[in-house]
Automatic annotation (TrEMBL):
This is Semialdehyde dehydrogenase NAD-binding domain-containing protein. SUPFAM superfamilies: Glyceraldehyde-3-phosphate dehydrogenase-like, C-terminal domain (SSF55347), NAD(P)-binding Rossmann-fold domains (SSF51735). It comes from Escallonia herrerae. The active site is at C139, H211. GO terms for molecular function: NAD binding; oxidoreductase activity, acting on the aldehyde or oxo group of donors, NAD or NADP as acceptor; protein dimerization activity. It comes from the Eukaryota. InterPro entries: NAD(P)-bd_dom_sf, Semialdehyde_DH_NAD-bd, Semialdhyde_DH_dimer_dom.
Length: 303
């Protein structure tokens, strides 16, 4: 039991949905402390009863008055609900951790993966009486960046990783190419503009849980397979499954209901000279780390 009188009060918005139910599972698994929980959902679900951690709860209909006395509100009810009720919760002084796309592109709302950019929450304080919005990134983005970030910290991903000057040169190259001029190549060794084709394919496959991603990374500095494997093995929230002899690599089934992001098939990108590129295969439970767990980890940082 994580029920404590001195702990923050919680609200779970969209509690009857898949991620809402996973919120409760993660809260229990991690013994997240709370003094009370409001179980909020649509009018259709209001009045239903269920038991969580040996206590019976009645689901309440989400309304503008739902957030009185709520310290942390976990939202997973879709972007339209978040856009309507998220600011209302903030006005009540609640810190909202939103799992939808509603605020991800808002420059004033921190977009947070705790293992990647915890400093983004430094200005938000629980118990200050001041509400705030925090956005959970898209599940596929979380899963990818859990693997890419520790490698970026060692060898820097290109090209935006090259900094503002490189991005300005890319813009300059674009103008020059369109005007028929020779492109400036001071930071980049060759013409970068119109010299790369990115193709992404997303498909739905018959698995109950977990996303699988084939990721190609290009670096500014050399990074070989063995070094990358060591870095990833030591990265928080990441597990390496990369046994070529036994043909053991990440699979959706292996990571279902697990917290970690699994990385395997770590290979040098042979299309690049030297050790400046890597291919990875990444798998993780999109309902767990890709949604509920990441949100609860954000809430834990506020305690």
């Amino acid at each position: 039991m994580s029920l404590r009188e001195d702990a923050p009060s919680l609200a779970v918005v969209g509690v009857t949905g898949a991620v809402g139910q996973e919120f409760l599972s993660v809260l229990s698994d991690r013994s997240f402390p709370y003094s009370s929980i409001k179980m909020l959902a649509s009018k259709r679900s209001a009045g239903k009863r269920f038991t969580f951690e040996d206590k019976e709860y009645i689901i309440e209909e989400l309304s503008a008055d739902s957030f009185s006395g709520v310290d942390i509100a976990l939202f997973s009810a879709g972007a339209s609900i978040s856009k309507k009720f998220g600011p209302i919760a903030v006005d009540f002084g609640s810190i909202v951790v939103d799992d939808s796309s509603a605020f991800r592109m808002d420059e004033d709302v921190p977009l947070v993966i705790p293992e990647v950019n915890p400093e983004a929450l430094s200005h938000i304080k629980l118990g200050s009486g001041k509400g705030a919005l925090i956005a959970n990134p898209n599940c596929s983005t979380i899963i990818c960046l859990m693997a890419a970030t520790p490698l970026h910290q060692r060898a820097k991903l290109a090209a935006s990783g090259a900094g503002a000057a490189a991005m300005e040169e890319l813009e300059q190259q674009t103008r020059e190419v369109l005007e028929g001029k020779q492109p400036t190549c001071e930071i980049f060794k060759q013409q970068n503009n119109m010299n790369v084709k990115v193709t992404a394919t997303c498909i739905r496959v018959p698995v109950m849980r977990a996303h699988a991603e084939s990721v190609n990374l290009q670096f500014e500095e050399p990074l070989d397979e063995d070094t990358a494997r060591t870095i990833l093995s030591n990265a928080p929230g990441v597990v390496v499954i990369d046994d070529r002899t036994s043909h053991r690599f990440p699979t959706p089934l292996a990571v279902s209901n697990k917290d970690e992001v699994a990385v395997g098939r770590i290979r040098r990108d042979v299309s690049l000279d030297g050790n400046y590129g890597l291919d990875l295969f990444v798998c993780s439970d999109q309902i767990r780390k890709g949604a509920a767990l990441n949100a609860i980890q954000i809430a834990e940082m506020l305690l």
